[in-house]
Design goal:
The chain has 305 residues and is mainly α. It has twelve helices and no strands. The termini are far apart.
């Protein structure tokens, strides 16, 4: 029974839940951690509950995707070990888990919406698994749109995090998230294409529309746009984090972003990390850089009360 439970949990891909940390972006960049302790803690707990809600909802999306792609996954060198593709979990069990996970996620999202009177957050939460189904059934088969579909999921997380605590949704935050997600998505497509070679279309039909050279260009463009968008954000936009001051103190964090993007590029081209982006946190230089960026942003916020 223990092994069966582990397979059920594996189907929901808990290693992917790190992506839901994006829900905290609004809390950090709106400077809510600088509020009076009681309010700051209240908002933090709301975002934390939202995080767990999206973990459950993203588990639903992963389960549905594995059910639909079980035949293709069996032809993939690593995906064939997924519970449904390997036959350790039946389709019926997968459907039951997907439904249970979605119910849990929506219940948590409803609680957050009720406690903070934030119905738009509930709408965003319900939209997430719907988007996941649309992506799994249709969008992932269309060139470029497949990457945009992945990026939309990242943006939806950021938007949901802002809606949960009712803070302003910065268009710069959305743009930076969109470009970063596209950069990661194209890097993953390149890894899949090179890994599978002539059998690429057997595991993902849209790979037949790509080429390594085309993806190299897409990756270079989105990497550059990510760095430029974040840089423009830091020295042109008034920052709620800094008390709506226009002084470009956030420019101090640009080197961390440049290093992070370039480090990811290095690992994507020199290792297999692009195939599992969530594993980036196991790379010590990248993890230290991310921690320093986060710490610097928080310190800037605290020093500009």
């Amino acid at each position: 029974m223990r092994e069966k439970f582990q397979d059920w949990l594996s189907l929901l891909r808990p290693q992917q839940w790190v992506k839901n940390a994006l829900l905290f972006a609004g809390y950090i960049f709106a400077g809510n951690f600088k509020l009076p302790p009681e309010k700051a803690l209240f908002d933090f707990l709301l975002v934390l509950a939202s995080f767990f809600s999206f973990c459950a909802l993203s588990g639903t999306v992963y389960a549905i995707n594995d059910i639909l792609d079980r035949e293709k996954d069996r032809k993939h060198p690593t995906k064939r070990n997924r519970p449904i593709a390997a036959g350790r979990v039946s389709v019926e069990e997968g459907v039951a888990l997907a439904i249970s996970s979605s119910v849990l996620g929506i219940v948590l999202a409803s609680w957050v919406a009720w406690v903070n009177q934030a119905p738009l957050f509930l709408l965003a939460a319900v939209s997430y698994p719907i988007w996941g189904c649309v992506y799994s059934f249709w969008l992932k088969r269309l060139i470029i749109v497949d990457a945009l579909g992945v990026a939309a999921g990242f943006v939806l997380r950021v938007v949901a995090g802002c809606l949960a605590i009712k803070v302003e949704i910065s268009p710069w935050l959305i743009l930076c998230t969109l470009l970063l997600a596209l950069f990661i998505a194209f890097s993953k497509r390149r890894h899949e294409l090179i890994l599978m070679g002539n059998n690429a279309t057997a595991v993902r039909s849209v790979l037949g529309e790509y080429s390594p050279q085309l993806l190299d260009m897409f990756i270079a463009v989105t990497a550059a746009m990510t760095i430029m968008a974040y840089s423009l954000y830091t020295f042109t936009a008034p920052h709620i984090l800094l008390g709506d001051k226009k002084e470009p103190w956030l420019m101090i964090t640009i080197p961390f972003v440049v290093y992070g993007v370039l480090r990811y590029l290095y690992l994507a081209y020199q290792t297999d990390i692009a195939g599992a982006p969530e594993q980036m946190l196991r790379d010590k230089p990248f993890a230290v850089n991310l921690a320093l960026w986060t710490l610097t942003v928080i310190l800037l916020g605290l020093l500009t009360r």
